[in-house]
Task: structure prediction
Amino acid sequence: MRVLVVEDDRSVAETIRRMLVAEAWVVDVVNDGMTGLERASTERFDVVVLDIMMPGLNGYEVVRRLRSAGNWTPVLMLTAKDGEYDQADAFDFGADDYLTKPFSFVVFIARLRALVRRGAPERPSTLVAGTLSLNPAAHIAKRGDVELILTPREFAMLEYLMRRKGEVVSKSEILDSVWDINYRGDENVVEVYVSYLRRRIDAPFNCKAIETVRGVGYRLAENGGG
Result:
């Protein structure tokens, strides 16, 4: 899942980024409201984490402009202010949830997952490709009735491939969507994780879900490979 963090306090933004990356989220960070508005308006994110008190364009105005433009990406607002009127203002401007700093990371992640689950009705709650199924919100993947034991990165890669099933995706596309935006390592790490996934989701079941398209990238078969 991809999240945009709009936070002018760079140390707070980096802490949030590290916590989310550890959960295998793909995180983009910007440090001002105007850039956040532009990114949220022109790119696809599953959820936006938005600080309220920022110079220039504050969080209230960012979410107001997004909603006025018909952009309904779920927004979780963060603030150091805990007054009930501040919370009411956030909801009135179009926020979906509100969290006061400092906050529990466990609660933060749970609320983000809830927002993704509620805020994207156009997406199925469970992704399906043949006998493969994956529920992003519950973080459960199965082959038939057998639950698959995947690392966070493996789960994120499988989710991305299932969202793009039937399409050929390049290594660079997978890196951009599954790895942290700051990753500067060898793109062949994608091959390594494809190999890991095949051992988890294909080999034990005599299936072949992930196809290699030579010179282009990978494709997850629409029928899940069996």
